[in-house]
Automatic annotation (TrEMBL), chain B:
Superkingdom field: Bacteria
Membrane-related topology note: Multi-pass membrane protein
GO CC list: plasma membrane
Organism of this sequence: Aliidongia dinghuensis
Single GO molecular function: branched-chain amino acid transmembrane transporter activity
Bilayer-spanning residue ranges: 12-33, 40-58, 64-82, 89-108, 128-148, 178-198, 218-240, 252-273
Encoding gene per record: livM
Compartments it resides in: Cell membrane
Protein name, UniProt field: Branched-chain amino acid ABC transporter permease
Length: 377, 279
């Protein structure tokens, strides 16, 4: 008896799983795949991206693609795990036969799933993968997120011009791919701009005490501290710096990890004066952006973030490319994507020959004031 | 039909390969657990195998069979070196020391230029195949069964049940412990090499504490009465999360629930049956 119950318990989810998998989309729809982090600790990124896709999908489907066909997105959850991202990519390509993939969320996942799509000649478009070397995976790998290599130089140039920064201290998390690759860009840009680096300090992503590194940095009197880290350690650094009594004139300059409202939520006023470059800002007042922000708030009762904005633009770009291609054919879509031209909430957009975003003119430099970001004036 | 089979195999290839590789890892755990030792260094040995094999493929261009040999030899050497000082430890103390080994490897890989730091190594060519992975798994399983059926297996079981008594009866405890650690390191290193050449990307965080615990849970869920138990545990724990993807947020809840139920009702693992003996 006990064994039967057990077996039934084990089989129940399998049965439901089978039923959901095999549900086919209508033949006249165009189904594309999306791999995002929808569960687990990093799901806030994936869910924001999904919201952005869905909002744009509603707009696209008012007219449809390829002469009125509906565009459908089949979502697969990667849970932030690269093996699951690969499984999802294989499932979408092999069983659902999608002509195009969106995602995955993290650069690590793209390094694992990208080669699978590339080998099968299915275009894959990352909307949030900013690490170096993503598009080097192969000719079918695209991304619409500005790589850090484009955003960081704008931030540093602005800081140099506005505040006359000559010598800086650098800090980065050396156990995280995102932070390390941001650091590499910082280092190269600082050299190019002729800014002197006094010291380079490292820490771990899960660290919570940065006083040793910051005490050393304080004694060197830098004009600014350049930090490449995710938002949690970044907030810790700002709080520690404030309690160590850093001069308020010393600016903290961050990479994309700083570009999150959470920074203000955690660090509060300790974050004031922190500078970060962003491909998008909620307060940009061009008509496309105001329309997007209003529509997002109406649909989700929440403010959009950078990930939602990038996803929103990406779906429009992809839908246009499918339309231009004239058929749901991976090869034709790839050619159409390569030639895509679009102006969205992030500003004018097109791909470089290497399938990275070509235009960094949409980048805005932000500054923290009273725990909130605003455009640096 | 062939096209359908093709798309099924293509779609689930990563999963099918993972089942085989995890089966090898479970066997590697089994060789240590079978003599009553608890090592959490399996993930580190796997990592050494993965990095060594990847570097040899990418930078030195060795043929794949030689790469596999090296992926077994280097972790075995590491096991020999750390074996001396750690063999005097037992139970939780050995577990602690081997966790230390994993942490050292992770920090080294993050700091070293050679291993690509936190960015890991990408662009690894896929050199594995279904036949290769499952052939190796079958060989390892056969070897483990033959050992378990022999006199050596009897000594191992005696050690697992009561180390002191086994020592008094003439079992060479230090040699058995070192031997088990070295063999388990070789199996884990081989699994690491196969895993690296089935994926196209490896990073330092793939071989940390989480992975060590996962490998341990393969063996514990399946049971260590025979070598088949850990392999069964690996199959279940690899396939289950994938089968449950449709449950979204409840996936991990149900996954955990099934494991709790299994452990509650079958504390000695799913396969309690022991292997018959010759000799």
């Amino acid at each position: 008896m006990r064994k039967t119950t057990l077996a039934a318990l084990a089989l129940l989810p399998l049965a439901t799983a089978g039923a959901i998998w095999t549900a086919p989309a209508k033949a006249e729809d165009v189904t594309i795949g999306a791999i995002e982090i929808l569960t687990g600790p990093n799901s806030r990124y994936g869910v924001a991206i999904k919201n952005g896709f869905d909002l744009a999908l509603d707009e696209v489907n008012k007219t449809g693609v390829l002469g009125g066909k509906k565009l459908v997105i089949q979502y697969e959850d990667s849970a932030g795990n690269k093996d699951q991202a690969v499984n999802a990519a294989r499932k979408l390509i092999g069983i659902s036969k999608v002509p195009l993939l969106l995602g995955p969320t993290l650069s690590n996942e793209m390094f694992a799933a990208g080669p699978v799509a590339n080998e099968q000649k299915i275009p894959i478009v990352g909307t949030s993968t900013t690490a170096n070397g993503i598009t080097a995976i192969g000719p079918y790998v695209f991304r619409t997120s500005l790589p850090e290599a484009d955003v960081i130089p704008v931030t540093l140039k602005t800081a140099q011009a506005k505040f006359g920064i000559k010598k800086v201290a650098v800090m980065y998390a050396n156990d995280d791919a995102f932070s390390k690759s941001g650091y590499d860009v910082f280092k190269a840009t600082l050299e190019k701009l002729g800014i002197q680096t006094l010291t380079t300090e490292t820490f771990g992503t899960k660290d919570s005490d940065f006083s040793a590194q910051l005490t050393k940095i304080k004694s060197l009197n830098p004009d600014a501290v350049v930090v490449s880290a995710l938002v949690e350690p970044a907030s810790g650094i700002l709080l520690d710096a404030r309690s160590l009594g850093f001069d308020e004139k010393v600016r903290f300059i961050g990479g994309n990890g700083f570009n999150s409202p959470k920074l203000g939520d955690i660090a509060g006023e300790a974050a004031d004066g922190t500078m970060v470059g962003s491909p998008w800002f909620i307060g940009k007042d061009d008509p496309a952006n105001t329309k997007f922000v209003a529509a997002y708030r109406a649909k989700y009762k929440d403010d959009p973030d950078q990930f939602a904005a990038q996803a929103y633009d990406t779906l429009h770009i992809v839908a246009n490319a499918i339309d231009k291609a004239g058929a749901a054919d991976p090869e034709k879509i790839k050619t159409a994507l390569q030639a895509a031209k679009y102006t969205g909430v992030m500003g004018p957009f097109s791909f470089t020959e290497n399938r990275d975003p070509a235009d960094a003119s949409g980048v805005v430099v932000l500054e923290m004031k009273g725990g909130k970001f605003q455009i640096l004036k | 039909m062939s096209a359908a089979l093709d798309s099924f195999f293509f779609s689930y290839q990563a999963l099918i390969f993972a089942v085989g590789v995890n089966g090898l890892l479970a066997l590697s755990m089994y060789t240590v657990l079978a003599i009553g030792q608890l090592s959490l260094g399996q993930a580190a040995f796997m990592g050494i195998g993965a990095y060594v094999s990847t570097l040899l493929t990418l930078d030195a261009g060795w043929p794949f069979w030689a790469v596999l040999m090296a992926a077994m030899a280097v972790p075995a050497l590491a096991a020999l070196v750390i074996g001396g000082p750690t063999l005097k430890l037992t139970g939780v103390y050995l577990a602690l020391a081997t966790i230390g080994l994993g942490e050292i490897l992770r920090i080294f890989c993050n700091a070293s230029e050679l291993t690509g730091g936190a960015l890991g190594l990408s662009g690894i060519p896929n050199k594995t195949s279904f036949g290769l992975i499952y052939g190796i798994l079958a060989l390892a399983l056969l070897g483990a069964v033959l050992v378990a059926r022999s006199k050596l297996g009897r000594a191992m079981e005696a050690m697992r049940e009561d180390e002191v008594a086994a020592g008094v009866m003439g079992v060479n405890l230090p040699a058995m412990k070192l031997g088990a650690l070295v063999v388990s390191a070789m199996l884990a290193g081989l699994a690491g090499a196969l895993n690296a050449h089935a994926n196209s990307f490896i990073g330092p965080n793939d071989y940390g504490f989480d992975q060590a615990v996962t490998i341990l849970s393969f063996a514990l869920l399946g049971g260590i009465g025979s070598p088949f138990g850990p392999v069964l545990g690996a199959v279940i724990l690899t396939v289950l999360p994938e089968l449950l993807t449709a449950l979204h947020d409840f996936k991990l809840v149900v996954n955990g629930f099934i494991i709790v139920v299994a452990v509650l009702f079958m504390p000695r693992g799913l396969l309690v049956w022991r292997i018959g003996r010759i000799g």
